[in-house]
Fold this sequence. Notes:
By secondary structure, the protein is α/β, with parallel strands linked by helices.
Amino acid sequence: MRARLWHVVAALVAGLMTMPQAGCGGEGRAGTGSFTVGLLLPSRTAPRWEHSDKPLIEKRLKELCPRCTTEYANAENDADRQRQQVTSMITKGVGVLILDAADARALRSSVLEAHRAGVPVVAYDRLVEGPVSGYVSFDGAQLGRLQGEALLKAMGERARSSQVVMLNGDPTSSNAAWFRKGALSVLTGRVRISRSYDIQGWSTDNAYADMAAAIAALGADRIGGVLAANDVLAAGAISALKRAGVGRLPPVTGQDADLDAVRRIIRGEQYMTVYKPFRAEAAAAAAMAVALGRGEDPRKVATTMTDSPTTSRIPSVLLTPSTVTARNIGQTLVKDDVYTVEQICTRKLRPACEKAGLAQ
């Protein structure tokens, strides 16, 4: 499935490369020549934003439109700051925005502001409210299902008799409810979900505090699994369990394939993560932004349509995520050049890496 999606994205991008280069000569806003793409990311909490998404998007934009430029800003988990950043970019004359909203609802006014200024917005990774022109992300329901299925598999026969703690994402993120719904579609009726928390800011510290509260209420030895929405939350959950003196950690899920999470998986502390091929996501977002910047129809890039609470039939690319455990790190993350074996396998991890089939 992943290979097929790569071919789809590659074909779409190749198609854009062969279109008339009307947008790459001259100055000013979109459609009048070379233009500036505003790239707005939500935080530095998850390593992926700065380490993967930003450089991949910038690289692909430059390949698609060599004379285009990029204006970058990070909201640091502050919706007010991101609104100011959007206004600033519109004032500077950007031709198109790629926006990963710090708060999907709060940024609606900024999307409206851009729309009124004639600046199309591509919602990236999270679907923001308002009249966006395109949307690129992953299938969040499938992502949640992968987490739920992996947790059930890891818990085995203990699933029905054990208690599960859910550490959901920030409620201001449109993805958080999507992930949770997907996970519950698998877990409901098959495990006992004893505690469920919405983690503000996708914060490790907040995840730690809520996991510690769950341990105090339920008892450390009675928790059979933790559905953590991403790797940052998984880190907080694992720290709380270890602080409580849990010797054999219950299976803990994750998402984003952060390097620290991959190392935790090798150590046996975290059971799984969900890998979302960032290169494919970045390529699709860049292709859609360039198409919009040239005044072209984003449906040339889109593979489906999505409805938001405010806008229907948004041209979209929704990619398929995949499960990563200790058994397939080499066949997924290493094979796709996300990390090298040398990056994953520190000196202390070499014995565990060899056991997982990651030989240096």
